[in-house]
Each structure stands twice: as C-alpha cells, then as structure tokens.
Amino acid sequence: NMRKQLAGLIGPEAYRVNISTLRSFGTDLINQYPEYFHDGAFYNPADELTRIAIVEEIFSELKHNSPFKSYHPEQGYTYLHDVITKIGELKKGGLSPDEFKIIIEENKFFLDQVSPLLVHIFDDRISGKTLAVLKKLLEEMQKINVVKQENGAYRTLQQIVIQSLAEAIEQAEGGEKINTKPLTEWKNLYTKKNVLKETILKDAVALEKHLALAEVYQKYQNLLKRRGYFDFEDMLMQTVTAMEKYPDLRFNLQEKYLYVFVDEFHDTSGSQM
Asked: 50-71 pLDDT, tens per residue?
C-alpha cells in the first residue's frame, strides 16, 4: 500500500526505495550482516507461542513464594501475559536485564532510606503544620545519595518523588493562605498505608514484583539465546547496540540510507527512536 502511494507520487523510482516495517528491516539487517550479531550464528525470530512457552517454563521453576507463581487450573499462570508485556516494554525503553536490575537497586536504596521518614508523617489531619513537616521531609530526601548508573537516560525514583513533592509544597504556599489540597493530592498519589498502618511510598509495594520481573527477564533472555531465538524487541535493541558498537556497520548504513521517512511517528518507542 505504501509503495503504491509512493509510485503515484514519484513513478517507477518508488520501486527502488526500501519500504519495510521495523520488524522486517531489523530482521533483514541481522541477516545481511550476521558477523555483527550473535557471533555470526543464525537466529530465528521468536513467535508469540515460542515466547509463551519459554516464560511458562521459567514460571514452572520459580520458587513457591514468587509473586508470579499464581496458577489457575484452566487459565494457566495468572501473570504470564502481564510479564511478557512488561518485558516488551522494558526492551522498547532500551533496558537490558542488567540495566533494569541496577534501576531496581537504586529504587530499593532510596525506598529503604526514605521509609523511616514517612512512617507517621500523615498520622494527623493535613494542615498548615503538615507543610512544615513535608518541607523537612523534602530536605532529608534531597540528602539521600542515590548513585545513578553511568549514562542512564532516565529519571530516578528519587528525582520523581522529590520534584513532585517540591511542586506540591510550592502550590500549597502559592496563595495568601496555605492551600492543603496539593499536599493531599501528593499523599494520595504517592503514598499508602501498609498493614501496620504506617505510611509508605506506593513504589515500595511494587518492589518485590520488580525484583521478580528482573529475574524472569534475565532467564528469558538466556533461554532465547540458548535456543537460537530473538524477539521483535530484541531485534530493535540488538541493531541499536550493533550500530553503537561497530562504527564500520554504522558508516555503511549511513552511506546506504541518506534519508529515513517514518510513518506513524507518534507511536515510536525509545528503542525505535
């Protein structure tokens, strides 16, 4: 369809233009330059059934206390499709299993440091006094020294929480009288009560699942490689990595493709970009 439209614009020259989906472009690239991928070994694209089978195998070997171990007699593993989707999202963001683990460790360090500061902070009704307490909390959170991974093109959990609280405090002080509504909204958006009725950041609840997801993600990548597969998101990440790692491949492609036109650009993910 795209080639037909292009032919209507520029005539027969349209048949000399490379038109493809990202999937086919990346797959062709890997096949044309195998020496830059998988140490020259031939790998096959993994279809949906292959991906499901690999994740099911990983789930079957998880410890009984894993948050992903939940199983329904008729529907199978409850979190199967969620985990496959999450792994795809991580890859679209350009995050390898190791990079994802580092981010989780950064978040865990921050959460461990900030949790004792939050425990009783919202025990009383939010008022003008709460504003002073939250200002003190903001100062303490800014002192926490989270070491971000080198060249990490992302905002840390610490940065997100600090910025949001700073904005809430600024809005609360913005008028003639203290407005507690922004403080209440921040509390509802970022915190919750645990079983001990203590205030915690909501991200602390998801930490266990993120740690489990990192483990599954790593095993999934290992099994894909061992069995000679790559999935769609792998193809994107591997082509990006190869062009960054091998200047001769990059120069060759830069010379071959002087211009790139992307359809539906607003749907472009991080790794596609």
From this structure: 999 999 999 999 988 898 988 8
Encoded amino acid at 35, one letter: E
Map 64-121 to HEC letters.
CCCCCCCEECCCEECCHHHHHHHHHHHHHCCCCHHHHHHHHHHHHHHHHHHHHHHCCC
- Report the 10 Å Cβ neighbour count for 89: 13
Which DSSP letter does residue 199 get?
Answer: E
* pLDDT digit string, tens, across residues 24-40: 888 888 888 988 987 76
| 205 CB-side CA count, 13 A | 11
Tell me which residue of 93, 87, 79 sits closest to 46, measured CA to CA.
Answer: 87
List, in sequence order, every beta strand (DSSP E) within 172-223. Answer: 191-193, 199-201
Side chain identity, residue 266? H
Residue 166 neighbours by CB under 8 Å, 6+ apart: 138
Could you give the 3-state DSSP secondary structure of residue 254?
helix
- Condensed to tens digits (0 to 9), the pLDDT of residues 254-266 reads 999 999 888 888 8
77: which strand partners? 71
